[in-house]
């Protein structure tokens, strides 16, 4: 589970935060430290194990939050608008990193976003939801390889899928 | 420049007021039992400094002891209350009632309970009673002020009630508990002073007793001197706790 904000415990270091799920699960201490450090390494925070959340930037906080979600090797991950508070550069870097992380164990990721292009970039399948009550309005497959090739945002597949999703979204928003 | 002004401005005002006070006393022939001139207060302060400092230390150490007692009892009761809603609603009206009752009103009771031979015990107990509430309410409200998203994460990871308390709620409560201690430290001094006044015997010779004693003898300059020492002590204690609070928060937050 990853929220819109990093949601880290301010009194714990990055390593301590990433250790929480394992500690609560009763994993032995030495293994906890080692796996948490490995998870942080994976998200690119290998040099920041001892840093507190207050010392991390927004993007780094999100990475730590991601490490905490990945540390248990989950088969399902729910990411609730994880990049919505980040600037565009950080958001794109994290998107590629997340897809790279996904390609290792290929867990199922449910990625909630309000950004059409982000949805098309991240997902193999885009599910468009209606506003209250939230129902599935449409489902669109993105016919391209994951993780994305460089320059995917400029390809025709990307543009056309994004247009299709936008159209479905507009239709779903209309009151019936 | 601004710093200089912020130091010089109050210093000048104080110097001016002292000079006016001194002049008024001398020119108006005010009897010194009514209002001693600042020079007489300064002399009393200078002569009495060692014994006043000792008396202030006695009161301070009593207040700190009371603070420690209040801290242990308030935090542990707060923790128990956090675990049981029933206990919390049972304790709450009592705690509020005790806090709302004027301290002076219950002080004589404590003096009776402690016995005429042990006024020191009454003073510690009374100071601890006033110091209890801010720490207790800080603990209880701090234990509730958990980030709801972190809370649902702990749900997701299947945390037990005990794990939740020790790993999530207690660390979340640290800032509120520290703040409670800062408030309680000031109140503990108030409690100690009130209790010394009520005990009013030579058995507990703290700074408040020195004020009382000087007042009874109409040695107003010595009274002033003792009050100044008490005020200084309270201000220094408050400053010390502000520094402690800042340090504790910096440690908690990591910067």
Helix coverage percent of chain B = over 70%
Q: Could you tell me how far the N terminus lies from the C terminus of chain A, measured between alpha carbons in angstroms?
A: 34 Å
Q: SSE string of chain B, helix = H, strand = E?
A: HHHHHHHHH
- Mean pLDDT level of chain A: 85
Q: Helical region count of chain B?
A: 9
Question: In sequence order, what are the helices and strands of chain A, one letter per element?
Answer: HHHEHEHEEH
Q: Work out the helix count of chain A.
A: 6
Q: How much is the average pLDDT of chain B?
A: 89
- Based on the structure given, which CATH architecture of chain B is correct? Orthogonal Bundle
CATH H-level superfamily of chain B: MetI-like
The N- to C-terminal Cα distance of chain B equals 30 Å
Structural class of chain B: mainly alpha
Biggest beta sheet attributes of chain B: none
- Count structural domains of chain B: 1
Give the CA-based shape of chain A. Answer: elongated
Instruction: Give the largest interface pair and sizes.
Output: A-B, 19 and 20 residues
Question: What class, by secondary structure content of chain A?
Answer: alpha+beta
- List unreliable stretches of 5+ residues of chain B: none
Can you offer a commentary on this structure?
The complex is a heterodimer of chains A (176) and B (255). By secondary structure, chain A is of the alpha+beta class. In chain A, 46% of the residues lie in helices and 12% in strands. Chain A has a two-stranded parallel sheet with strand order 1-2. Chain B has a single domain, classed as MetI-like fold (Orthogonal Bundle), CATH 1.10.3720. Chain B has nine helices and no strands. Chain B is flat and about 80 Å long. The chains are: A alpha+beta (176), B mainly alpha (255).
Quick rundown:
With 176 residues, chain A is α+β, with helices and mostly antiparallel strands.
């Amino acid at each position: 589970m990853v929220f819109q904000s990093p949601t880290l415990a301010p009194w714990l270091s990055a390593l301590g935060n990433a250790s929480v799920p394992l500690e609560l699960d009763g994993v032995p201490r030495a293994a906890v430290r080692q796996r948490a450090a490995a998870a942080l390494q994976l998200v690119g925070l290998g040099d920041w194990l001892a840093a507190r959340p207050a010392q991390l930037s927004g993007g780094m906080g999100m990475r730590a939050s991601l490490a905490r979600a990945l540390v248990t090797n989950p088969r399902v991950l729910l990411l609730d608008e994880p990049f919505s508070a980040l600037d565009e550069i950080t958001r794109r870097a994290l998107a590629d990193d997340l897809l790279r992380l996904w390609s290792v164990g290929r867990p199922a990721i449910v990625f909630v976003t309000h950004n059409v292009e982000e949805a098309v970039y991240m997902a193999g399948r885009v599910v468009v939801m209606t506003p209250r009550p939230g129902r599935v309005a449409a489902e669109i497959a993105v016919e391209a390889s994951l993780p994305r090739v460089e320059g995917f945002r400029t390809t025709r597949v990307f543009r056309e899928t994004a247009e299709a999703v936008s159209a479905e979204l507009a239709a779903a928003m209309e009151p019936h | 420049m601004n710093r200089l002004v912020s130091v010089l401005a109050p210093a000048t005002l104080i110097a001016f007021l002292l000079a006016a006070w001194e002049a008024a006393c001398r020119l108006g022939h005010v009897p010194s039992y009514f209002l001693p001139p600042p020079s007489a207060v300064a002399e009393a302060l200078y002569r009495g400094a060692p014994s006043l400092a000792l008396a202030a230390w006695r009161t301070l150490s009593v207040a700190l002891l009371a603070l420690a007692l209040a801290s242990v009892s308030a935090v542990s009761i707060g923790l128990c209350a956090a675990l049981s809603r029933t206990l919390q609603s049972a304790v709450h009206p009592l705690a509020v009632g005790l806090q709302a009752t004027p301290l002076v009103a219950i002080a004589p009771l404590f003096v009776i309970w402690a016995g005429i031979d042990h006024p020191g015990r009454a003073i510690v107990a009374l100071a601890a009673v006033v110091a209890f509430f801010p720490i207790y309410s800080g603990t209880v409200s701090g234990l509730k002020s958990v980030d709801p998203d972190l809370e649902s994460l702990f749900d997701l990871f299947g945390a037990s009630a005990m794990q939740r308390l020790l790993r999530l709620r207690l660390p979340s409560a640290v800032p509120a508990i520290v703040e409670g201690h800062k408030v309680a430290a000031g109140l503990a001094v108030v409690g100690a002073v009130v209790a010394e006044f009520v005990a009013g015997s030579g058995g507990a010779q703290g700074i408040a007793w020195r004020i009382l004693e000087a007042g009874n003898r109409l040695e107003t300059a010595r009274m002033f001197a003792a009050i100044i020492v008490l005020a200084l002590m309270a201000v220094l204690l408050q400053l010390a706790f502000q520094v402690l609070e800042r340090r504790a928060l910096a440690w908690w937050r990591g910067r």
